Amino acid sequence: MRHFDAEYLRETRRGMWADSREALADLALGECDRALDVGCGEGALTRVLREESAGTVVGCDRDARLLDGLDGPTVRGDAYRLPFVDGGVDLVACQALLINLSDPGRAVREFARVAADRVACVEPDNGAVGVESTVEAEPDLARRARERYLAGVGTDVALGSDAADVFREAGLSNVRTRRYEQTLVVEPPYSESEIEAIGRKASGAGLRERRGTMAGTEEALDSLRAEWREMGRDAADQLARGAYRREETVPFYVVVGEP
Ligand SMILES: C[S@@+](CC[C@H](N)C(=O)[O-])C[C@H]1O[C@@H](n2cnc3c(N)ncnc32)[C@H](O)[C@@H]1O
After folding, report:
1. Among residues 80, 86, 141, which one has the least CA distance to residue 94?
2. Nearest atom within ligand 1 for CA of residue 63
3. What is the distance in A from the centroid of ligand 1 to the CA of 41?
4. Which of 11, 66, 95, 131 is most buried per CB count within 10 Å?
5. Domain of 109: which CATH number?
6. Residue 202 domain flag
7. Does residue 136 lie within any of the structural domains?
8. Atom 26 in ligand 1: which residue has the minimum CA distance?
9. Quick check: is 13 in a domain?
10. Which of these, 136, 94, 83, 102, lies nearest to 119 by C-alpha position?
11. Which residues have C-beta atoms less than 6 Å from ligand 1?
12. What is the pTM for the complete model shown?
């Protein structure tokens, strides 16, 4: 069971929903009196739902430490057994939760039990992430590391593009999908966390920590890590000269259905 810390979540959701919220239109947030954000983490989606809805938005997570840092109504709970009565809220939503669950269909069925009007998810397709970088080797290495991660992680982290099928199989009707692209740019002036992330690339620490979720022999992963460290050193050199730029695009799928 993977644990997330608030800083990591803030960094990976940086800029998300800041540019356009059109992809959330089918959630009909203006008509929502009571909504639930399951697997809310440090509240990246909860805050957006609260800004777009005049009603109450409750953040729900199984991790009490993440809920402690979140203002407004929260409840500790498990996506498979939500502490709500049938039809207890208008909308049940989640963001980047289903990709972390071993049985996403079971969670969606539970959402449909609790939602009176709509169920929604915002899930990435981590198999289709795009990387551009001023370090020539980085896009290909990022792709190879991602492929090993997709094969080794144990849950479907590319589920976003298939989330509509999961909704239909769970018995939801009128299922609609919209796409949203989150773009994460690293460029001067670099933030503290960006400088730290490049340092971790150069030392290979990031890949080492993800060893347990990456497929491949020890030898293959050692060789990938060696190439990765070299790429990280080039990135650190460019960073010192203010010449490093990296752009990552993550496709998210917003799926809405009716119970
Ligand atoms: C990748 S984070 C996403 C957090 C947030 N929704 C966001 O977009 O930043 C996944 C979250 O789901 C929570 N989570 C994982 N399994 C859960 C479960 N079975 N029930 C409730 N929350 C769960 C984790 O604690 C974590 O906060």
Report:
1. 80
2. 25
3. 5
4. 95
5. 3.40.50.150
6. no
7. no
8. 41
9. yes
10. 94
11. 4, 9, 13, 38-41, 44-45, 61-63, 66, 78-80, 95-97, 100
12. 0.94
